[in-house]
User: What shape does this take?
Amino acid sequence: MTGLLEAQEISVRYGSLAALDGVDLRIHDGQRHALIGPNGAGKTTLLNVLGGSTRPQRGTVRFDGRDVGRLGPAARARRGINRIHQRPAVFPTLTATENVVVAALPRVIPRRRWWPGGRRRAAQRLAGPLLDQMGLTAVAAVPAGHLAHGQRRQLEIAMALAGRPRLLLLDEPAAGLSAIEVGRLVELLQALPRAVAVLLVEHRLDLVYALSDTVTVLRDGQTLAAGTPDEIRTSPLVRQAYADGVA
Amino acid sequence: MRGEVIRRVRGGIAALVLVGLVVAPWVVDDYTTSILARTLALALVGVSVALLTGVAGMPTLGQTAPYAAGAYACAVVGSRVSDVGVVQLVVAAAAGALLAALTVPLVVHARGVIVLMITLAIGELVVIVLGRWRSVTGGTDGLAGIPAVRPFWGLPALASDQARYLYALAVVATLVGAVLVLLRTRAGLVLRAGRDDEMRLRASGHRVALHLSGAHIAAGAVAGAAGSLLVVAQQYISPADFGFDTSALLLLGVVIGGTASVGGALVGAALVIAVRDWLFGVLPGHAPLVLGALFVATVYLLPTGVNRARGRLRPPNAPAHQSDQPAAPDQTNVAELHR
Ligand SMILES: Nc1ncnc2c1ncn2[C@@H]1O[C@H](COP(=O)(O)OP(=O)(O)OP(=O)(O)O)[C@@H](O)[C@H]1O
Ligand SMILES: [Mg+2]
Assistant: This one.
């Protein structure tokens, strides 16, 4: 197993606050890695650093063997790092289908490269099945701004998948979803191709244990513990941290 | 279902307006016909303003710059090289596109009000250059006596105001059609997405600056082509045709028309220009004041433009938009132009 993503010594400061303080993270091809920790631990900040929207003051990020530290979010997405945001980010005036089409465009390969509209048609072919998987077929033609919160989150997941990710960064994908929607999400994530690595930030530990093979615990910007779900479940340190914070 | 009805009604109105525009030169006098031809040129610039402001999310006060570049290029070519309309149009569009391309580095990384300020400065700079570069532009006197255009090789020169108006109408209709087609392609979709949420577009791997540059250059080409129509309509141009007041009026017209709509931009820009020309006769010297008041009234009383009506046609229980989301395009107003 090779390291698909290697982040070393990542530090991000906001004024006097150290949101991240020397965090290391390594994700292998196809790994299902969970990132947990109390509110304000720095989970979203770490995802921002990996996705390229936040520049760390210190530390390196390598993806697929190359230093991507200087690349912005778009260039990283084209290399296969796709994400969903803690607050669902979709294009509100575009229909659900158009949202997925836009997300798919940079990474689709049309059959005939120079045929007008070929790329768009190729993206369109991707959109239908993805919306179906997320249970959004009925609202495919509805502007995303009119969708309920849970639907928007599912739409953003469909968008992230449309980008043919090699590494999927998921920031609390289950937050705000109904029980049915959470069930569908778990199924979907379990059915992802083995080659896709996932970094999952999630407060619900039952989902974390069901979906991940490795867990990293952050607290106050530092790695508190890392291990298999079983190791984390029984770790006194983690219990202590969660007793102080939010479970 | 309802959308279908609205589309039909809109299509019907557009067809009626088009018929009205075609017969207009036989209804009004020659002077009014030439004014109408100039208004068509300005309405086309309005479309390029809408393309940038409403569709790409780059509010602009500088489309008079490529408009002027196109007009002067057309005037020079028309006087010295060729009186063929197609040639003049291509040269003018290329000049507009070139000017836009040169200013791309200044505008694509800025946002909102900053874009307004930068584009305003570019527009003013162009007017100054036009006034100084006498050997080519004729300075503040402008260029006069540009020969009448012949639309195509072998066709006669357009000697009457009617003919020149119809030529302008045909060109505007063709170019507006082209813009509408463009907006339905991948490029249009990605531009609308970027206006909605630029960060999300980046996160999906799109080169946002590249898309915005393309839109800026395309809008420059449209404005440049409009410049050639101004030359056809007036056979005379001077820096006064491209001043700040024109930019401001066009932006006003586009805001009234509901920034993101091409049809709205055409109607809004034409309306504002017509009001200005009319006021100019009725209240000599006070037209800028009245238009300024109109501008303020538009921003405060009509925050969503004429196209606000569309907002009312939404399903009643659907949220207009999330408070944390950017405004929908038909709700963009001047106060919200900064994203
Ligand atoms: N842009 C910012 N400016 C200032 N402080 C910030 C910024 N972003 C995050 N922080 C701070 O950095 C710390 C880590 O925030 P982060 O959002 O990464 O936490 P989190 O683990 O994702 O929390 P949550 O579970 O609530 O989402 C918090 O104290 C937060 O207030
Ligand atoms: Mg967070």
The mean pLDDT of chain A is 90.
